[in-house]
Amino acid sequence: MNEPKTLGIIHAINLTIRAIEPFIEQYLPEVSVMHLCDDTIQRDNIRAGVGVIPKRNYFKFAQYAHNLEEAGADLILLACSTFNYAAELARPLIDIPIMQIDRPMMELAVRQGTRVGMLATLATTVPSSERLLRIVAAEQKKPVEITTVLREEAFRAIQKGDAATHNAMLLEEIDKLSGKVDVIVMAQLSMSALAPQLNDTRVPVYNSGATCFARLRELL
User: Fold this and answer.
1) Domain at 103-207: CATH code
2) 56-60, 156-160, 209-213: the lowest-pLDDT one
3) Where does CATH 3.40.50.1860 sit in the chain?
């Protein structure tokens, strides 16, 4: 009998552990999961300001990836969108695959169209998510026009457990964006809570939870 595969997940804030659990249960029930969370990463990313990632956080990610590899992980998932570049820096140092949680979503969006709307609730996420979207577009040799909308008050609401306010704000922005773009991506995993209410949108709206874990199921 084959040993179950093991997924190692690196979190920069404990909020994503709660957000990720339903996707693990749905897509990877037979996979062993190891969570590694360091809340100081997100704290220090936010303190550093938009577009700046402290070097120590890149070092921390590489160290944690090494720890998970030594512990027997078959694949490592970076669950934080804000410093997704850490995965690219760590790959040459680690012998198992590393995936950014947003990459499958970005790849799907770029295949759908050239006008991509990006909805974010955390300012520090915007530069890294736009960068990853452009990397994916370059890989697919497609031009991409990104329209980004930031609603930080929605993130504050979900942090307080107020999913209703969070979702209402985002649905309002999705409705506005839908007339301007071919497809919409939601830049943080926490926004995946909105997924059940997105069955009747004018353009496809993708979240990193469903797209990432569907890909992980294929890989694992």
Assistant:
1) 3.40.50.1860
2) 156-160
3) 6-101+212-219, 103-207
Phi (first) and psi of residue 147, to 5 degrees: -115, 110
Give me the pLDDT at residue 20, please.
92
- Nearest CA to 181 out of 130, 125, 133, 118 is that of 118
Which CATH architecture best describes the domain 6-101+212-219? 3-Layer(aba) Sandwich (3.40)
For β-strands 6-11 and 75-78, DSSP reports them as parallel
The pair of structure tokens assigned to 157 is 């609401």
**Residue with structure tokens 């990836």?**
65
The Cβ of residue 34 has, within 10 Å, a number of other Cβ atoms equal to: 15
User: Is 0.70 surpassed by the pTM of this model?
Assistant: yes
* pLDDT band, residue 1 (cuts 50/70/90): low
Q: Helices in 148-191 by DSSP H: which ranges? A: 152-159, 163-177
Distances (CA, A) of 207 to 46, 140, 170: 22, 20, 12
Mean model confidence pLDDT for the chain: 93
Phi, then psi, of 216 in degrees rounded to 5: -60, -35
Residues 133 and 84 sit within 8 Å (Cβ to Cβ): no
Report the run of H or E that residue 146 belongs to, with start and end.
Answer: strand 145-150
| pLDDT tier, 111 (very low <50, low <70, confident <90, very high otherwise) | very high
